Amino acid sequence: MNPEKNIWLDLLERWPKDMPQKGVIMTELNESIPFVGFAYDDHMVVVQRQTPDAIGARQAIIPFSSISYMKITAIVLPKSYTEFGFKGALPKV
């Protein structure tokens, strides 16, 4: 894999149009940031929160370099992950 390639930017650009933008971003500092929508540029993602956090913030701007992993909280059909570019098959639940 190309070390210069931004995996998070690549993932967001391939996000399926019919898949809700709902999930949780986990940062390298173990902060969990739930989101219900996002926008991005080449270096950062802006996430929209459904409800304000403890200090009243509804949006968070997160550098891609700070993202550890992402959880998807929307109900997603297994075929959606192939649209992301993943190979293999997830079990139908």
At CATH's second level, what is the architecture?
Roll
- How is the main sheet built? 3 strands, antiparallel
Low-confidence stretches: none
**Rg on CA atoms, Å:** 14 Å
Q: The CATH topology, please?
A: SH3 type barrels
In helices, the fraction of residues equals: 10-25%
How many helices in DSSP terms? 2
Kindly provide the name of the CATH class. Mainly Beta
Please give the number of β-strands.
6
Mean pLDDT: 91
Keywords:
93 residues, alpha+beta, SH3 type barrels, three-stranded antiparallel sheet
Note down, in words, how this protein is organized.
The chain is of the alpha+beta class. The chain has a single domain (7-84), classed as SH3 type barrels (Roll). The protein has 2 helices and 6 strands, in the order H-E-E-E-E-E-E-H. The longest helix is centred in the N-terminal third of the chain and has 7 residues, at 7-13.
Gist?
The protein has 93 residues and is an alpha+beta fold. It is 14% helix and 31% strand.
Topology:
Blueprint: H1 7-13, E1 23-27, E2 32-35, E3 37-40, E4 44-48, E5 59-63, E6 67-72, H2 79-84
Antiparallel strand pairs: 1-2, 1-6, 3-4, 4-5
